[in-house]
Amino acid sequence: MNPIVLIPARMASTRLPGKPLAEIAGRPMIVAVLERAREARFPRIAVAAAEPEICEAVIAAGGEAVLTRADHPSGSDRIFEALQALDPDGRHDAVINLQGDLPTLEPEAIRAVAAALETSGADIATLAAPCAEEDRDNPNVVKAVVSLTEDAVTGRALYFTRATAPYGAGPLYHHIGIYAYRRAALERFVALPPSPLETREKLEQLRALEAGMTIAVAIVGGVPLGVDTPHDLEKARALLAERMSS
Predict the structure, then answer these.
(1) Relative to the CA of 86, which of 4, 24, 42, 163 has its CA 20 to 30 Å away?
(2) CB 65 within 8 A of CB 59
């Protein structure tokens, strides 16, 4: 496969306005995420930006960026526009949608989602990690209900939910919102209307399952820190400072 990593980013975060340009370890957060993708050694990485100032920050750091419409309803729609602009000839047959608020993400996680897509034959791949005990009943923590293969590190998504599922004894899996799409699957996905379960659970990936698309899941060791609030930002700054000093 010949994947492209696309990182959607917009300034209009409700809880942390201007989030992509928030300073972490002396550089904008979007640049820190770009560096994580570079560490994963993918051949092409670009930022799909809703505002010119994000593009300017990425280009100043030696990265590639494309300006997209500001009114996209989701990151999936944004990366599809970027893909069409950056690769109109279809050289990239897979797309990794990497969230722009994961500055401490381990590069191995990005490689894991790409590998899951390639080896599974699924339309889409994503990640999950064992759910912490304190998060089992937290509706803000999305659970992936996964039919695991014998190796217990890969599987097929049966459902995603904010409820505590599946019922009974055994592990729960915390969904991590990083996706890899086959190019044709991304094109099909963004053309679908929102589905009933997607609307009910407020989980975009349910649209794919309701349409009969397959989602592979790779199980990784931990959940990366997503930066959504000023408190998260301070934690990310501390983590990266510790990483750089070690």
Answers:
(1) 24
(2) yes
CA dist 199 → 78, 161, 178, 206, 219 (Å) = 19, 12, 20, 9, 26
- Tokens at 171, concatenated: 């592990």
Residues in a beta bridge with 11: none
DSSP string, 127-195: EEEEPPGGGTT-TTSPEEEEEE-TTSSEEEEEEEESS--S-SSS--EEEEEEEEEEHHHHHHHHHSPPP
φ, ψ dihedrals at 28, nearest 5°: -65, 150
- For the CA atoms of 66, 185, 213, 68, what is the dihedral angle to 10 degrees? 20
**Structure confidence by residue, pLDDT tens digits, 141-195:** 999 999 998 888 899 999 999 999 999 999 999 999 999 999 999 999 999 999 9
